[in-house]
From TrEMBL, chain A:
NCBIfam families per UniProt: thi_PPkinase
SUPFAM superfamilies attached to this UniProt entry: Thiamin pyrophosphokinase, catalytic domain (SSF63999), Thiamin pyrophosphokinase, substrate-binding domain (SSF63862)
GO BP: thiamine diphosphate biosynthetic process; thiamine metabolic process
Domain Thiamin pyrophosphokinase thiamin-binding: 176-243
Keywords attached to this entry: ATP-binding, Kinase, Nucleotide-binding, Transferase
Pfam families: TPK_B1_binding, TPK_catalytic
Protein name stated in the entry: Thiamin pyrophosphokinase thiamin-binding domain-containing protein
InterPro entries per the UniProt record, alphabetical: Thi_PPkinase, Thiamin_PyroPKinase_B1-bd, TPK_B1-bd_sf, TPK_catalytic, TPK_catalytic_sf
GO MF annotations, alphabetized: ATP binding; kinase activity; thiamine binding; thiamine diphosphokinase activity
Automatic annotation (TrEMBL), chain B:
GO BP annotation list: thiamine diphosphate biosynthetic process; thiamine metabolic process
Keyword Transferase: yes
Keywords, alphabetical: ATP-binding, Kinase, Nucleotide-binding, Transferase
Keyword field contains ATP-binding: yes
GO molecular function: ATP binding; kinase activity; thiamine binding; thiamine diphosphokinase activity
Domain Thiamin pyrophosphokinase thiamin-binding residues, every copy: 176-243
Species per Swiss-Prot/TrEMBL record: Polypedilum vanderplanki
Name of this chain's protein: Thiamin pyrophosphokinase thiamin-binding domain-containing protein
UniProt xrefs under InterPro entries: Thi_PPkinase, Thiamin_PyroPKinase_B1-bd, TPK_B1-bd_sf, TPK_catalytic, TPK_catalytic_sf
Amino acid sequence: MYKFFPKNILNIKEIKKSQIKYGVIILNNLIKLDPLHMETLWKNSMVNITVDGGTNGWLNFLKKNNLEEKLQDPNLITGDLDSCHAETLTYFKDVKIIQSNDQNENDFSKSLRALEPLCKEFNLNQVVVVTDNSGRLDQIMSNINTLYKNHLKLKEHIRPAYMLTSTELSWLLPKGKSEIHIPECAKKQKCALMPVGRPTVVSTEGLKWNLKKDEMKFGGLVSTSNKIDKQTDVVKIESDFPILWSMGIRDD
Amino acid sequence: MNKFFPSKIITKKEVLESNLNYALIILNRPIQIKRELIETLWNNSLINITVDGGTNRWLNFLKNNNLENKLKHPTLITGDLDSCHAESLKFFTQTKVIQTVDQDETDFTKCLRVLEPFINELKLDHTVVICENSGRLDHIIANINTLYKNQLKSNEISRPVFMLSSTSISFLLPEGKSEIHIPECAKKLWCALMPIAGPTTVSTEGLKWNMKNFEMKFGGLVSTSNKYDGISDFVKVECNLPILWSMGICDEI
């Protein structure tokens, strides 16, 4: 049984008071999160990593919100750096860079690899990945694949990587039983269970359209545009394979 | 052997020259494709369908480009219509509305069902769907599921469905052998093979990083940000399960 408390990522008060240690990875070059939310996540994290073009995104975010002198620099800049502007690298000149040109992994995977020793050092329990559904289908799928690879690598130790956009939070639920404690902002919001990568047998409680040992698969049942039932505080899911969950965090 | 010619969809010139019979569907995402291309696709299709909020998007596109009175109205508006503005319905007076309320399927899936009888009637070769790959993850995934569901239909009522965005074209390759003709300007761009439905054994030719009887799967190898070998006009793919192909397209019209 694994329990998830997304309020520790989504709610500003909860982020500040939570004891859970996390890292932040900035993937995308346009940060659309609410600025105070982004600032709070950054300030309270143990490790902040900006990835390639995400470094430009972070600098733009600082400038746009007059935060240049106010927030700590990233701990690391990673990626192949082919999208990172010279101006950005100059600005963050004191930041350690781990450049990797390996074409066999995407930038997200490389950043998790760079984070690995820091996860141990700082006892990190989760990773918050600031991203967006960018328009390139292969990059979206590549990031989902990274979630699977990361999950499989960690085996018994669950250290979720939460993909956070301005409107939704997505992550891989492990095989077996999960409970998702639904924060206020997500109640009555849309949600989805997506068996990306293979057919998965799933049961749920707490959704508008629940599943009961239903086989979910592409070409058949993929539970998109589902909703969290308005009475629900805890969504329960059981699956025979890791499955991708997504939940709305504010109105579209 | 299945042959795919995305070039016949992505440039205005080729759309006009190829003279194929196709249906055009507009889904509910911002329309970011170049005006000339989308205008050409619209004018030359045999049936134009706007789906729910896609109807609003289409009306906005017309207004932003001063085309309100220049392009024919959609043939059909479909969907559960919970996102379609009254103003849009009111504007398209010549359009038949088919409301599909079933909540077990997405509007896009239902739209392809509505299209089924037209496939033989209009002798449609393929369907082009205008949709950016942005916004809600579950919508992006749902659209892919619609492609897989369409793939399962009988030959009578199924035709290739091309998802066209401003930067890419994506479609399902059926089980077996496929050839994809790579337009000249796309040869320097990216491409991808994604085994969404399950582990898939794949062989390819014509890519920068080819596969030979390789099992592709999530949690393992998913071929994204691939490229072309720089020599071939065709990419050849053989797979034992339908697999999703996506490729970058260029700016030229």
